[in-house]
Design brief:
mainly beta, Immunoglobulin-like, Jelly Rolls, 3 domains, 5-stranded mixed beta sheet, elongated
Amino acid sequence: MNALVRVTVAPDRLALAPGESADVVVTIQNAGPVVEHFTTTVVGLPRDDLFTVEPATVKLRPKETGTTQVRITVPPRGLLVAGPYVLGILVRSPYQRDASYCAELPLAVAPVPVLAMAVQPEVVLGGDRGAYTVALSNEGNTTLAVALTGSDPERRVGFEFDPERVLLEPGTGSGVAVRVRANAPFTGQEVRRALTLRAHAGELESERPATFVQRPRLAGGLVRVAGIAAGIAALAGAAVGGALLIRDNKTEQVAQLLPTPPAIPTALPQPSSPPSLPSSLPPSSVPSPSSLPPSPSSSTPSSASQPPGESTITDFSRLPDNQPAGDRLIQPTLYKGLTLSSDAERSPTDCRDATSVALRTTGTFGGFLTSARPAGANLCNNLPVRIELAQPARQLTLTVIGTGGDYTLRLQLADGTVESRTVTPPPNTPAQIPYEAPAGNTIKSLTYGHANPDPTTKAFTIIKSLATIPA
């Protein structure tokens, strides 16, 4: 121990779980010949705000002893992986370098597994097959080996996962592609199948619901048209058959009224050749097709309605080729039908050139779209993001994650008007913002970002997906 200062720590070891705190009493003795001031800090924690010292400075005369109380906190999420650590309780004089000492304090961090799971999109509209993306995040402090399964109450749906298993280190995330399949109805109404997707990591389990809406293979309008055609064919057949029966009956009655011709004697000589037929037949009395009245089916338009516009879903947690988003700058037109950019109008000075966009992936939020500077995907992620639609939409749903406070969604409509909505999504949880254009109008573009006008705000812009229904 240093000859100028003596230090003892009680208790001499700690065992804490994430989010827990403990107090340590540090006893300091000035063993030097002059009055000294001593400060105490903790070495080995990931952030300085994870410990406090009271009092911050102790003034001691020679041979005098004083104490400080140090509170140590283990962060609640991912910063300290489960296992043993050795912290340093450093006591030193700001005026004399030799008057310092660092006492060791063993710390055991208990394992607390936390698995976060999100499903995008929540509703898929299709035929025999559908596709989802599951975003997994390890928000605990121990490594997780995650396997996925799926089920539906009727046991009619098959599930495929790619990859089937994922190894997640603390504070990391990954995306899993899910493909579902089931026989779609041949005719009739749409079938809604309730799905449950589950992630297992040992005894830890997380699950999320999803919906698979299956359209019939043959639309109801086509069935009605086919039925009408069959009915018309049956009526036409009955009419033709009845006419033939009437004609046959009249022919038989006329034959009965005519006198029976006398029998030709067999002894008479037979003609050498049969009598000749007329060289031409009289013109037919059947009217030409052009003189017939139009049939009902040709003069009445079909009543079968066109199917409604399908929803187009763009998942920003993955690349268009279904690979994980990672951390990268992207081209504005990477996603089909969209043009992406950042709005740097109210940006701080160091973000004036932040007109690019990027895909980011974090352990808490998974993959998402955000603003960025051309110099790096991790720079200036707190600016509004603008999305221009190549095909105007009549309805959209934006899926976002908020980090606290209000956000603004501005929509540019086809007639030149701008509508604005302020929303407060729950922190760190995916939330959906739906919008439907007024009758006779369509959506051309949208801009989403934090509502705080302060250019130094640190709230991230996090966009998970965009679903649009074209006009």
